[in-house]
Amino acid sequence: MRRILHGMVATALTLVTAPAGAHSAPPADRQQTPRSAAASNSLSLPFETYTLPNGLTVILSSDKTTPTLAVNVWYKVGSKNEVVGRTGFAHLFEHVMFTGSGNVPYGIHDKLTEGVGGSNNGTTNNDRTTYYETVPANYLESALWLEADRMGYLLDALDLPKLNAQRDIVKNERRQSVDNQPYGRAREILAHATYPPAHPYSWNVIGSMTDLSAASEEDVKNFFRLYYAPNNAYLAIVGDFDAAQAKAWVAKYFGDIPRGKPITRPKVDPVVLDAEKRLVYEDRVQVPRLYVQWPTVGETSDDRFALDVLGTILAGARTARITKALVYDEQAAASVAVGQSSNEDVGEFIVMITPRPGHALTNLEAAADAIIDRLKKEGPTAEEIQKATAGEELSFVRSLESNLGKAFRLTDGAGYHGDAGYFRTEYNKTLSVTADDVKRVANKYLTRGRVVLSVVPTGKLDQAAKPDQSIRVTEYDAKKPDGGE
């Protein structure tokens, strides 16, 4: 999931820049060339892709700049694939996958990655789980063996004591990152308020304590059998390697893993809120904080590009509209963050404001609304569009600076869009955003159908934005909207 609240430049990635002293304006016969068209000709990331008979999609991208490489295995499974009462499975498996597999005892994975100067890790979001290694180029075979063994033989080494140990680790992670973290429940409360209880994006990726406790060994193993199969996975190898040798090793280690059963994907409906929901949650914090969230669109909608640019125009740089007004000019806010978050199927646009002492959330909300309303009426300036798209372009290029960053882009494209080369489309559409696009999406999505959440210090409900109109969120409500913890 991309959260943009305002990844390696190598020989395979080239950006054409003007020489020193060149005129800022192009020749007259070139002034009408769209910026995106010119950019598309300057961005190059060579790759090839093929599919094994068992359904595994393989992506190879060679870059000999350094004698290193990245291996990324991307599974199309996240918290979206869970059901009410059985949440947290995808994230739990992110931990279980590092405990050893049929032919790889616990600790060997670290020894063959971190022990040789590399690294390994994994992440889970609503839509996918990914595991990756960065290693010296001569350790490619080891990395492929490690990933293939846990794809094909993880259950050979998984027993109840090992599962319980990881279950306890995940519970502790929830305590650290959600339950006992200042403002840690805000995202969870916003999701519960934005989506219906059974909606696949309504629960936290980490799951609930009750669901984690209730998961049986067989529940977890069945989840693995269905989703951790080659036909639900994408393997990317990026860096210094010989393509023929890499293909031979991929076939050797992954080719015999059986194809999994067909997967029925959850039906995800878009969400439109008919009216504003106002909530207040008491937390162990010293300073209140305001969150305003609108349901928007996901990866499959082109409107997300204009929403990304809108977020950059509103906050981030000190000249961005809300940042300039509230943080610098009025010095009413200590910090401001604004941006579009795009999952595969749905998304959210969020404004987050932390006040300075003596400034009320009600006033900050009104000030931010006034700035957004003006932009909705007038649209952004040409200069704002130029600055924002330049910033988006820089962020995009930086995501491609390393072998691992390129592996993420290639697998995201293949997994979400069926095209490992989707990065080209994404790059061009980002640069093609116009002032009219930004004005249109601001008016379409930033409506009165939104969730306004005030997180306030315990016992100080009066510090909420419009406290008399806000519904108090209880501990019970915050943990799980459908009952239980």
Write the layout of secondary structure elements.
Layout: E1 2-3, H1 35-40, E2 48-51, E3 57-62, E4 68-75, H2 89-96, H3 108-111, E5 119-124, E6 129-136, H4 140-153, H5 160-179, H6 186-194, H7 209-214, H8 217-227, E7 233-239, H9 243-254, E8 277-283, E9 289-295, H10 303-314, H11 321-329, E10 333-342, E11 347-355, H12 361-378, H13 382-398, H14 403-417, H15 422-431, H16 435-445, E12 451-457, E13 471-473, H17 475-479
Parallel strand pairs: 3-7, 8-12, 8-13
Antiparallel strand pairs: 1-10, 2-3, 4-6, 4-7, 5-6, 9-11, 9-12, 10-11
Structural summary, described in words:
The protein has 485 residues and is α+β, with helices and mostly antiparallel strands. Helix content is 39%, strand content 17%. The chain is built from 17 helices and 13 strands. A seven-stranded mixed beta sheet has the order 1-10-11-9-12-8-13, with helices on both faces. A hairpin with a 4-residue loop joins strand 10 and strand 11 (347-355). It is globular. Residues 7-34 and 478-485 have low confidence and may be disordered.
Low-confidence stretches: 7-34, 478-485
Ends distance: 25 Å
How much beta, percentage-wise?
Answer: 15-25%
Major sheet strand order: 1-10-11-9-12-8-13
**Rg from alpha-carbon coordinates:** 24 Å
Overall mean pLDDT: 89
Main structural class: alpha+beta
Number of strands: 13
Helical content (DSSP H or I, runs of 4+): 25-40%
The H-and-E topology, N to C, reads as: EHEEEHHEEHHHHHEHEEHHEEHHHHHEEH
DSSP helical segment count = 17
The biggest sheet, with number of strands, parallel, antiparallel or mixed sense and barrel status, is: 7 strands, mixed
Query: Which overall shape is indicated by the principal axes computed on the Cα atoms?
Result: globular
